[in-house]
Amino acid sequence: MRTPDRPIDEEERLAALRALHILDTPSEERFDRLTRLAQYILQTPIVLITLVDVDRQWFKSRQGLAVTETPRNISFCAHAIHSSAIFCVPDAWADPRFADNPLVTQPPNIRFYAGAPLTLASGQRVGTLCAIDSQPRHLSQEQVAALQDLAHCVVTELQTAEVIPLTQRLWEREAYLHTLLTTLVHGIVTIDDQGIIQSINPATERLFGYTESELRGQTIHRLMPELDQTAPDGDLHLCLAGDGANRIGSGREGVGQRKDGSRFPLELAVGESRVGGVRQLVGIITDCTARKAAEARIVQQNSALQELNRLKNNFLGMAAHDLRNPLAALQGMSELLLEVSLPDTVKQEFFASIRRLSQQMLTMVNDLLDVATIESGHFVLNRSPGRLDQLVQERVRLARFTAQAKAIILEPVAEEVIWAAFDAERLAQVVDNLLSNAIKFSPAGRRVWVEWVAEAGQVGFAVVDQGPGIPEEERERLFGPFQRLSNRPTGGERSTGLGLAITHKIVAAHGGTIRVESTPGAGSRFVVLLSRV
To answer: Does residue 21 or residue 250 have the better pLDDT?
Structure first.
């Protein structure tokens, strides 16, 4: 027996066989009908579609044979794949290559074999369509031609089997790209060499308000009126003229115009493609509205930060001045008390001034520390249910001495039981700040009083004065830090400009609100609202 040689292109042949993805697959009618037809035409008991693998021959379709594979080293088909012509053995007993072959001396007792190689379009022969008989015989010319034709049909089916998964992958790829284009937030527009719109994706329809049918055949100018496509040095003109998409490819900002005439900022990037040899430009459009708004907010925030820094620097200058004056006065009075013998009445006046100036400086320093604590994020409240009415009444009683010193009429608070959740120490600071301001900015002889307020499930109080009021243009910055309102007489008292900012932060930390109602020349009303218990 002669063992079949391996073809010189064995590696390529096996790779082509593997690429068919057909080895060890179930039987298929499209192959079986070809072997049945060959069995009828050739009048042989056995017809096989054989694929020659590394060490075996495997039968994709078989008529008249039960086994699915046999060893390659004893196969007839392994000889047949060496030539493109039909390999025919009329009588295996008389052929020294096969006389002692186990397939000849044992079942299926091959005496006659004819195999037509299955040659793929790439040139590799991966197997045969073969006819087998246990009796010696010859094929007629018509049968040889029919075997050859049927072998071509088998090859067609084999390559169709290869194409099916490729086609499936192409469909899946197309479905993926369709989904991508449909769900993409960026607009995509294709235009031809003349700048005429060929297609758009759904995002473009959403961006501009046009349907694809409304835009197809229109120039890109319909969407971007300011994009110059006619000027010789215009970006789009250069792209259309063949200078490539690098002119705009990296992204160019512009203005888009919707169907309703409204405009919005956009960024346009253009790439070049060729479909079937036809050149197209593909524009990717990004709506920059949100980004521009964010940039504007950043600019505004930077401007606000610069303004805050300016106010802070101004404040620090004023605070230094306000602290330096009482410190200088304290130093002068201290030196006189130490070095000069003064009458007791003068000493008493000095001691009273020292106390007043020290209290003024302590208030300023406490305000600065409060602001530093709040801004550092270490501001913590200890809230608990309590009688809001009792806290406010106590602070009003303590403020009477200040009011009397300025000849301000501080009216008693109406008796009422009001419960709320608050930090007693911090809320007392709020009440003190509001009462102090009302007294400070009210002319002598005017009234200051507290009202109880209930709104939308909240409770609180309002501090009302008959002072000069607050102009509308100054109310917006009233609760900002480092603010000192203009044209508000204080009777010579100094102010850090931090009191209302601290008050606002404390109320906000309680989850409450504070607002001001004021009429220039008719006084102000500061309303504080907290959550009920």
So the answer is: 21
Number of other CB atoms surrounding residue 103 within 10 Å? 19
Q: Where are the beta strands (DSSP E) in 100-249?
A: 112-119, 125-133, 187-191, 197-200
Distance (Å, whole) CA 132 – CA 64: 9
**Whole-angstrom distance, CA of residue 181 vs CA of residue 532:** 54
Read off φ and ψ for residue 48, nearest 5 degrees. -130, 145
Pairing type for strands 409-410 and 419-422 reads unpaired
C-beta neighbour count of 337 within 10 angstroms: 15
Burial (0-12, 13-18, 19+ Cβ within 10 Å), 30? middle
| 184-287 has the same fold as 10-166 | yes
Contact 501, 428 (CB under 8 A): no
Reported pTM? 0.41
- Please state, in angstroms and rounded to a whole number, the distance separating the CA atoms of residues 224 and 254: 8
Q: Judge whether 240 and 281 are in contact, CB under 8 Å.
A: yes
Fill in the DSSP letter of residue 239. Answer: I
Please classify residue 17 by burial: count the beta carbons closer than 10 Å to its beta carbon, then call 0-12 exposed, 13-18 middle and 19+ buried. buried
> In 3-state terms, what secondary structure has residue 170?
helix
Q: What is the CATH architecture assignment of 380-531?
A: 2-Layer Sandwich (3.30)
346: how many CB neighbours lie within 10 A of its CB?
Answer: 13
Tokens of 10: 């064995």
Are 529 and 453 contacting, i.e. CB atoms less than 8 angstroms apart? yes
The helix/strand/coil state of 500 is helix
Alpha helices in 58-210 (DSSP H): 77-80, 102-105, 141-183, 202-208
Choose which CATH entry (2.60.40.10, 3.40.50.2000, 2.40.30.10, 3.30.450.40) describes domain 10-166: 3.30.450.40
Between CA 307 and CA 309 the distance in angstroms is: 5
Fold of 292-360: Helix Hairpins (1.10.287)
Encode pLDDT of 262-303 as tens digits.
Answer: 998 888 887 776 766 677 788 888 888 888 888 888 888 887
Strands 56-63, 69-71: pairing is antiparallel
Domain boundaries, the chain: 10-166, 184-287, 292-360, 380-531
Q: Which stretch of DSSP H or E encloses residue 52?
A: strand 46-52
Rounded Cα distance, 195 and 191, in Å? 5
Kindly report the backbone phi and psi dihedral angles of residue 278, in degrees, each rounded to the nearest multiple of 5, phi listed first: -95, 130
Q: How far apart are CA 394 and CA 415, in angstroms?
A: 12
- List, for residues 154-202, the tens digit of each pLDDT value: 999 988 765 556 656 666 666 655 665 565 667 888 888 777 888 888 8
Q: What whole-number distance in Å separates Cα of residue 222 and Cα of residue 21?
A: 51
* DSSP H helices in 340-423: 344-376, 388-405
Question: Phi/psi of residue 67, each to 5°?
Answer: -70, 155
